[in-house]
Amino acid sequence: MPSLTAEKLIIAFHKLSDFLNQPDDEFNSVTDLAIHHNAWFQPEEVQRSLSSFREMLNPAALEKWFEGIKVTGTPKNIGMILAGNIPMVGFHDILCVLATGNTAVIKLSSSDNKLLPALLRQLVIFEPALGKRIVFAERLKDFDAIIATGSNNSSRYFDYYFGKVPNIIRKNRNSIAVLNGKEQTEDIALLGHDIFDYFGLGCRNVSKIYLPEGYEIKNFFEPLEKFQPIINHFKYNNNYDYNKSIYLVNSAPHYDNGFLLLKEDTGLSSPLAVLYFEYYKSLNDLNEKLISMQDNIQCVVTSTELQLESGIVTFGQSQHPALWDYADNVNTIDFLNSL
């Protein structure tokens, strides 16, 4: 098998980034097909995902990332069970497997089985040696390690079936925002992207906000008006109508701006089209609370200084992870390098 050096991989990944600036007709036809296959994968959401990959795969970032990567001489088979909640959500995990010189044995999600193969076919055009390192499988077998992403429910099955091999098994996580009441209108408008991009379906989407006591809810709602067209998507609208009717029937207190329901709740994982909120008395108390919940939090969107180990991003940036922003704060490269 042809040798794959870090230099060759960097060149191939960067060529893919350039390609995504101006995809060819064949790739565009696949994106059209994906949109018809999955109604959540609207054109702007697919483009949003591709744009994120373009940013991620810039030359400076690739050089920095590869400084901590050793490309193995003997590739191991890494079984991969991918999620399908947002377009091409498993791409970063695949990059990690390929960057370490291993073979990605991929079980695609039925919700996202069009875009990723097309993206990886293009990558193989730029570096043909990767053709032997990318395998699609209906059933995983003969693997040396597993990376599996799913729900809290499916993670129990993953633990049962794959617990005896080295693994990364991901469960449900949610992202939150912390406001201090001093945010500008522009900050809240940017936070809207963290809430509404990909219709709020990603683990990096904000599903709950923490507000200082006495915060005026109108200061939060008004800057979000530009996201009102989200209600025109029939699946999102169905969720909005359903949750609104539940709250009305149960006389559950909530705020409603016509496309987002805001409900006070101690939970982290809000239903689609709903954003939970909770008031806090002091940042010190909130910080201690968040530290105790870190295993359930993907990232924290805030301009406030918090004493958390990682996962803090500025407004509007939750859906723009860098190459070294690993899901669940588990360094995938270190895991693969240790095999």
Automatic annotation (TrEMBL):
This protein's superkingdom? Answer: Bacteria
Q: Name one Pfam family in it.
A: LuxC
List the GO molecular function terms: acyl-CoA dehydrogenase activity
Q: What is this protein called?
A: Acyl-CoA reductase (LuxC)
Organism equals Pedobacter hartonius
> Keywords on this record?
NADP
**SUPFAM superfamilies per UniProt:** ALDH-like
Which example biological process does GO assign this protein?
bioluminescence
